[in-house]
Specification:
The protein is mostly helical.
Protein backbone atom coordinates (compact mmCIF):
# COMPACT_ATOMS: atom_id res chain seq x y z
CA UNK A 1 0.00 0.00 0.00
CA UNK A 2 1.40 3.39 -0.93
CA UNK A 3 2.03 6.14 1.61
CA UNK A 4 -0.70 8.28 0.00
CA UNK A 5 -3.23 5.43 0.22
CA UNK A 6 -2.39 4.90 3.89
CA UNK A 7 -3.01 8.63 4.59
CA UNK A 8 -6.36 8.53 2.78
CA UNK A 9 -7.46 5.50 4.78
CA UNK A 10 -6.37 7.25 7.98
CA UNK A 11 -9.03 9.87 7.28
CA UNK A 12 -11.69 7.16 7.01
CA UNK A 13 -10.39 5.62 10.22
CA UNK A 14 -11.04 8.94 11.96
CA UNK A 15 -14.79 8.33 11.53
CA UNK A 16 -16.45 6.76 14.56
CA UNK A 17 -17.23 3.06 14.09
CA UNK A 18 -14.92 2.70 11.07
CA UNK A 19 -12.05 0.27 11.46
CA UNK A 20 -9.70 -1.32 8.97
CA UNK A 21 -12.23 -3.95 7.86
CA UNK A 22 -14.84 -1.29 7.05
CA UNK A 23 -12.17 0.77 5.27
CA UNK A 24 -11.58 -2.24 2.99
CA UNK A 25 -15.30 -2.33 2.16
CA UNK A 26 -15.25 1.40 1.39
CA UNK A 27 -12.11 1.03 -0.73
CA UNK A 28 -13.80 -1.82 -2.62
CA UNK A 29 -16.44 0.61 -3.88
CA UNK A 30 -14.01 3.46 -4.55
CA UNK A 31 -14.39 5.41 -1.30
CA UNK A 32 -11.04 6.57 0.10
CA UNK A 33 -11.97 9.86 1.81
CA UNK A 34 -14.79 10.75 4.23
CA UNK A 35 -15.84 13.59 1.94
CA UNK A 36 -16.77 11.05 -0.72
CA UNK A 37 -19.52 9.80 1.61
CA UNK A 38 -21.31 13.16 1.87
CA UNK A 39 -24.65 13.12 0.11
CA UNK A 40 -24.41 9.42 -0.71
CA UNK A 41 -27.18 6.92 -0.13
CA UNK A 42 -25.90 4.46 2.49
CA UNK A 43 -28.20 1.72 1.22
CA UNK A 44 -26.79 2.03 -2.29
CA UNK A 45 -23.24 1.93 -0.88
CA UNK A 46 -24.08 -1.18 1.14
CA UNK A 47 -25.61 -2.88 -1.90
CA UNK A 48 -22.49 -2.00 -3.94
CA UNK A 49 -20.35 -3.54 -1.19
CA UNK A 50 -22.45 -6.71 -1.30
CA UNK A 51 -22.15 -6.88 -5.08
CA UNK A 52 -18.38 -6.29 -4.94
CA UNK A 53 -17.99 -9.11 -2.43
CA UNK A 54 -20.36 -11.43 -4.27
CA UNK A 55 -22.51 -12.03 -1.18
CA UNK A 56 -24.94 -10.34 1.18
CA UNK A 57 -22.87 -8.73 3.92
CA UNK A 58 -23.87 -8.61 7.58
CA UNK A 59 -26.46 -5.96 8.42
CA UNK A 60 -24.08 -4.43 10.98
CA UNK A 61 -22.08 -3.20 7.99
CA UNK A 62 -25.14 -1.30 6.75
CA UNK A 63 -25.58 0.30 10.18
CA UNK A 64 -21.91 1.30 10.12
CA UNK A 65 -22.20 2.75 6.61
CA UNK A 66 -25.28 4.72 7.72
CA UNK A 67 -23.30 6.10 10.66
CA UNK A 68 -20.33 7.05 8.47
CA UNK A 69 -22.54 8.80 5.91
CA UNK A 70 -24.29 10.69 8.72
CA UNK A 71 -20.90 11.92 9.94
CA UNK A 72 -19.81 12.91 6.43
CA UNK A 73 -23.04 14.91 6.12
CA UNK A 74 -22.04 16.93 9.20
CA UNK A 75 -24.09 15.12 11.80
CA UNK A 76 -22.52 14.24 15.16
CA UNK A 77 -20.77 10.90 15.49
CA UNK A 78 -22.99 8.28 17.11
CA UNK A 79 -22.65 4.58 17.82
CA UNK A 80 -23.30 2.43 14.74
CA UNK A 81 -26.45 0.98 16.30
CA UNK A 82 -27.92 4.46 16.90
CA UNK A 83 -28.67 5.60 13.34
CA UNK A 84 -31.89 7.30 12.27
CA UNK A 85 -33.01 4.20 10.39
CA UNK A 86 -31.58 0.84 11.25
CA UNK A 87 -30.60 -1.95 8.90
CA UNK A 88 -33.74 -3.77 10.04
CA UNK A 89 -35.77 -0.84 8.70
CA UNK A 90 -34.01 -1.33 5.37
CA UNK A 91 -35.03 -4.98 5.12
CA UNK A 92 -38.58 -4.20 6.18
CA UNK A 93 -38.75 -1.47 3.55
CA UNK A 94 -37.35 -3.83 0.94
CA UNK A 95 -40.04 -6.40 1.82
CA UNK A 96 -42.84 -3.78 1.72
CA UNK A 97 -41.63 -1.75 -1.26
CA UNK A 98 -44.38 -0.04 -3.22
CA UNK A 99 -45.16 -0.79 -6.86
CA UNK A 100 -43.04 2.19 -7.94
CA UNK A 101 -40.05 0.76 -6.06
CA UNK A 102 -40.15 3.42 -3.35
CA UNK A 103 -38.79 2.56 0.08
CA UNK A 104 -41.42 2.63 2.78
CA UNK A 105 -39.52 3.19 6.01
CA UNK A 106 -41.23 3.91 9.29
CA UNK A 107 -39.25 5.56 12.06
CA UNK A 108 -38.64 3.32 15.01
CA UNK A 109 -39.37 0.05 13.21
CA UNK A 110 -37.17 -2.61 14.74
CA UNK A 111 -38.01 -6.04 13.40
CA UNK A 112 -35.67 -8.85 14.37
CA UNK A 113 -32.65 -9.09 12.12
CA UNK A 114 -32.73 -12.86 11.93
CA UNK A 115 -36.28 -12.86 10.56
CA UNK A 116 -35.42 -10.27 7.92
CA UNK A 117 -32.01 -11.49 6.81
CA UNK A 118 -31.98 -12.84 3.25
Amino acid sequence: MSHQRRDENSDLLALRNVGRAVVRYFNGVGITQPGQLAGRDPIELYEQMCAAGGRREDLCLLDTVMSAVDQANGNPARPWWDTQHSASDYWLAKATRGAAGDHVVGAGVSAGRRRLRL
